[in-house]
Amino acid sequence: MSARVEASLPRAGAVRRLEEPDRERWDALAANADGASVFHTSAWASIWTEAWRNARWEVLVIEDEAGYAAGLPAVVRRHGLWRTVDAMPYATYGGPIVRRGHPDPEGARRALLEAFAAWIDSRRVLRAGLAWYEGRAAELPERLPTRASFTHVLPLASDFETLASRFSPSTRRLVRQADASGLSIRAVTTSEELRAFHDIAVETVRRRGGEPKPLALYERIAATLVPSGLARYHLVFHGGEAVAGSLHLFHEGTAVSWLPVSRE
Questions:
Q1: Where on the phi/psi map is residue 114: left (φ > 0), alpha (ψ -120 to 50), or beta?
Q2: Distances (CA, A) of 74 to 87, 89, 153, 235, 246
């Protein structure tokens, strides 16, 4: 139920901002919308609302008789009178999502993006961000400045040999070198292995000029996303030493290599 009091039901197609979205209805939308990702889920939002003080998950939604028909999620952080709006924090794939079969998906996305632009058009918003995978520039409001980026997308075949045959020659060479060097990979299953992953992550992020995230965040991801099948940590070993790793995120048949790390 929304924290806002409504005198009557909203008209069909109207956008509302909910400060207390229904998790079940929202995740049903995320599971049935093309382009939705793990970054759209309530579980991803809970990682950051628990990690950050004065943070709240809020969503823009269009509702119909079946529930949430379209939406755009964000995590809002309060800094006294000021706030930041991230849609969503550290998201590779975000943006507006629309339930499959919606009669006017483009109109729904436009309405959500206009509402987002109006939402952040406030002197009290210090910073706002929106990452939209396969975003359609023509649907964005002119007042939202944009920057194009890219990501690598690889359709996964049913077996590794078929998939590997599509690798570039340099990638196939590196895979052969890894086999010859005696490297092995396995999923992280213990707290000791998770700490080893974090140690490598801290080294990697500092080497890249970034600010490392605390172990508590990785532990929260392990406790919240891993049991539900939304995430998996992997470590690469040379002999008995962990030398590299990756955090993979999963949602409705899509796998994302979100954080690859390695020793120098």
A1: alpha
A2: 4, 8, 24, 31, 25
The SS3 assignment for 217 reads helix
Taking the C-alpha atoms of residue 153 and residue 57, their distance in angstroms, rounded to an integer, is 28
Q: Which amino acid is at 6?
A: E
- List the pLDDT tens digit at each of the 264 positions of the chain: 333 333 333 444 699 999 999 999 999 999 999 889 999 999 999 999 999 999 999 999 999 999 999 999 999 999 999 999 999 999 878 899 999 999 999 999 999 999 999 999 988 999 999 988 888 888 989 888 888 887 887 787 778 888 888 888 999 899 889 889 989 999 999 999 999 999 999 999 999 999 999 999 999 999 999 999 999 999 999 988 999 999 999 999 888 999 999 999
| Whole-structure pTM value | 0.86
Q: Name residue, tokens 């952080």.
A: 77
Three-state secondary structure call for residue 257: strand
Query: In this structure, are strands 254-262 and 15-18 parallel, antiparallel, or unpaired?
Result: unpaired
DSSP string, 91-152: -SS-S-EEBTT-S-HHHHHHHHHHHHHHHH-STTEEEEEE--TT--GGGS-TTS--------
User: What's the burial of 228, exposed, middle or buried (CB within 10 Å: 0-12/13-18/19+)?
Assistant: exposed
Distance CA 45, CA 74 (A): 8
DSSP three-state, residue 89:
coil
Task: Name the amino acid, one letter, at 100.
Answer: R
Instruction: Name the residue with tokens 């040379």.
Output: 238
